[in-house]
Amino acid sequence: MSNKNYGFFLLLCSIGLIISSASGTGYHIPTVAEGLLNDTGCYIGAYLGGNQGANNAMCVNYYRKSNNAPYETQILDHPLEYGEKKTGNSNEELKETDTGIETFRTAIDVLKPGGGKKQLLFSRYYNLYYYPDNDYGKIPYTESPAPYIWAEKVLKQNGIPVLVLYPWALQTNGLLDLTAQNGYHAPMTGVAIITEIAQKCDALSKKYAGSNGKPATILLCFGLEFNTQKIVNPTGIDAGDNENKKAWRQMFRSAYTIVRAHANPSVQMVWAGNIAQTKNDRIFYWPGTDDNGNQMAEDFVDWVGMTWYPWKNGPTTLDDLAGFYNYYARDRNHPMIFMETSADGNGISADELSLKNNQVTYLYNKNTLQKYPNIKGIIWFNVIKGEDNTNQQLVTKNFLIPDGNWNNQGKSTTNPGYVYSSSNQSAMMSSRYPNAVTDPYFVGYSAPSLSADFDLVINKDSMTIICTDTSTGQGINSWKWDVNGDTKPEYYSQNITHRYKSPGNYPITLVISNGMQTHSTTRIVTIPSGYPERDCYLFIGSFPSNAEIWVDNAHKIGITTPNMMTRYLVPGGAHSISLIRDGYTTWTGSYSLKWPQVRYFGQITLNPVLRSSHQNRTDFGGIKTGILTTGSSGGQKPQGIMPGISIKSDSGIRGGSPIQDILPASIPSI
């Protein structure tokens, strides 16, 4: 790399240092209950390295474990301040928590302006045996930040922390056990560790709530690649159950239960092994499988996933993984995430570069992913890593995106090293990756966040609903309303009015879109049977009093008093009215009213049951009745009528014939 290009790369690191000092709000990924699986798109990010810290003045170097075997590099923003012990004082606080996020984003923006804003998910691994410190590949004199310290820094940098928690050392009698203690300075049980992580993440999630006020998302991947661990799978065979797998399932269920008890729903648990192609590949590791091999009532999982490194002659398409996807993601309503992806050329550079180019072009492609809409997360493994190949020769696999290389300065741990693109040494990577991920299908914190919602008003009289859109988010330009649950939209306007033909329970679904994202919400509306809402009045009393007042012999509206001016609210339209009292003949009349009419019946004299048979239910004998009007009618006023209200005589009506004169209902209360 030329001095000019080397200086340019230093400038990128300096820019990252400046940007990282600004704090931001967190990003909220909708939960499944909030409609995540109805959203269109996928979240992306990177794993930028272990927690080994830095020991030089440059962003990246070639690190060695204690046996001098090449291990992982990582991208750093502030190498002199990352996890270093300046003195021998073990109580000295860490100077700075580094993520590498800003340097990584800046390098992408150089190649594709705006591309760096799409990076959202950032993962880091933590060995719970050393909790709250971490021994994951670190050089001897560094100290790692606790998971929640690193998580807060990611949130400040507008990323979503993905904490990968390794519980393998927590065991009793050769089986995993969350009640076992770890081996750090002040030992803690796994229960205490998970409880503290859940509580810390809950506080951070709420502290860095997004612009919509919802808690920021934090993902906890518990026991990544569980099926490769001997404590879980001592035989190396996925098929068949054993005590080790049962202990693993119980451990995951316990951890999930603790997280749900101590953290809000935005803190979500991920269950992910390595590459799997069918349901049976993972069924005995599935937390929802009980000790008898049966599916439990609950899955104890939020996200499902795997690591996927295509290799030559291996699974290279999502169709190869469809059996796993269909059962664990699609059929069980879980989002799916690739916790790691890149390519494995088995140390053969040409194969590795070809596979990586194919993978980044294939996987970061909306046409590929639209067939598998539950895939909601992809994390690229963005480090340089040393592993043994099939010939047991140590090779350093380059997982950087997609053709990154590095200069390790002769394997120095003191002289600066750096990462660069093989096609452009002034950049960390080629343009293939940022070109892919700038597609709107890939969601980043700069993309508008949509939330579908609406206000609902029900007019029970006409069986009509009025739906007013109250959705939030930028650029909403599409509304689809399904008002009867048949999944076919009936309306495409922002606000709607719909009248139902019959009573019942109807799901109303609103789907909104801004062209890049889609979100939906569903509410159930109950259209009642029976009477419309009461909107007219009757004045009626009885002698004797305490008779039940029934409309259409089906709807009780009250009990009479001796006062003929007692007012009752009744449904409009044509209805019968009955007075029923034990020991007396039922009296029945009728009315036909619509707003704002009222009807005055006066005081009804009820006849004892033992009276002569010619007095039947429709006899109006003894009724003092009339019609209230707004003007003077020259009629006589019965006793107790309000001044200014005239009564028109109606003594000639018999047999319950309706009285049609009307009065506006806006009369004073009596």
UniProtKB/TrEMBL annotation:
Which segments cross the bilayer? none
Spell out the InterPro entries in the cross-references: GH (IPR017853), Glyco_hydro_26 (IPR000805), Ig-like_fold (IPR013783), PKD_dom (IPR000601), PKD_dom_sf (IPR035986)
Kindly provide the name given to this protein in its UniProt entry.
PKD domain-containing protein
Q: Which GO terms describe its biological process?
A: substituted mannan metabolic process
Xref: SUPFAM superfamilies = (Trans)glycosidases, PKD domain
Q: Name one GO molecular function term.
A: mannan endo-1,4-beta-mannosidase activity
Q: Where is the PKD domain?
A: 464-527
